[in-house]
Specification:
Layout (H helix, E strand, L loop, with lengths): L1 H61 L5 E4 L7 E5 L2 E13 L2 E10 L4 E8 L13 H7 L9 E2 L8 E2 L5 H22 L3
Parallel strand pairs: 6-7
Antiparallel strand pairs: 1-2, 2-3, 3-4, 4-5
Protein name: FMN-binding protein
C-alpha cells in the first residue's frame, strides 16, 4: 500500500512539472512577444524613414541637380526628378539576366531619352570581372547614350556603342540591355519628347 501511494505521488508530481513547464513556456512566449512588438513599434517608423532617406540619396546620386523626386503615377517604382518644378529626368527600375542571375538596375534617363547614369541594386556576377559593371569606368561608357547606341561591341575604336568588359561580355550585354529597356520605356512614356 505504501509503495502504491509513493508511485501515485510521484506521478502527480510529474504531471505538475509538465503543467509548470507549459506555463513557464507560455509566459516566456508572451513576454518575448510583448518585447518584440514594443521594439517593432518603436523602431519601424525609424527604419521606414531611414529607408526613404537612402532611396532619396540613391536617386540624388543619379541626378545630382534635381531638387525633388516624386513618384510617377501609374508607373510602379518610377520617380520623376524635378528641378524648380520641371521634370528633368525619370528614374526607372529595370532588370535583366546576367551570367550569375538577375541583375536589378535603377536607371536615370533624361526627358530626351539619354542615359544620365545607373546604379546596380543587386547582382551575382563574377567578382573581379562581371561585378565591374557597377564601377565608374563602365558606367562612363553608358552615360549619355541613346537607345540606338546601347549595343555592346568588342572593337575599341568604336566610340558610338558600349565597349564590353574584358572577360565579362555576358554581364556587359545584360547591364546594357537593362539600361536600354529603361530608356525605351521612358521614350514610350514621354512620347519621345
Amino acid at each position: 500500500m505504501s509503495e502504491t501511494h509513493d508511485t501515485h505521488a510521484a506521478h502527480v508530481e510529474k504531471e505538475y512539472s509538465i503543467l509548470q513547464i507549459a506555463m513557464n513556456l507560455t509566459i516566456a512566449c508572451l513576454v518575448s512577444g510583448i518585447i518584440l512588438a514594443t521594439t517593432y513599434f518603436i523602431t519601424h517608423p525609424i527604419a521606414v524613414e531611414k529607408a526613404k532617406m537612402l532611396e532619396e540619396q540613391a536617386m540624388k546620386d543619379l541626378v545630382a541637380e534635381a531638387d525633388s523626386f516624386n513618384a510617377v503615377e501609374g508607373q510602379e517604382g518610377w520617380f520623376a526628378a524635378e528641378k524648380a518644378g520641371s521634370i528633368i529626368a525619370y528614374i526607372v527600375p529595370s532588370e535583366s539576366k546576367g551570367y550569375g542571375g538577375t541583375i536589378k538596375i535603377m536607371v536615370a534617363v533624361s526627358t530626351d531619352g539619354k542615359v544620365i547614369d545607373y546604379n546596380i541594386l543587386s547582382m551575382n556576377e563574377t567578382p573581379g570581372l562581371g561585378d565591374s559593371a557597377a564601377k565608374d569606368f563602365f558606367r562612363d561608357r553608358i552615360k549619355g547614350k541613346t537607345s540606338d547606341d546601347l549595343i555592346v561591341v568588342k572593337d575599341p575604336s568604336n566610340k558610338e556603342n558600349v565597349q564590353a568588359l574584358t572577360g565579362a561580355t555576358i554581364t556587359s550585354r545584360a547591364v546594357t540591355e537593362g539600361v536600354r529597356a529603361a530608356v525605351d520605356e521612358v521614350i514610350e512614356f514621354t512620347g519621345g519628347k
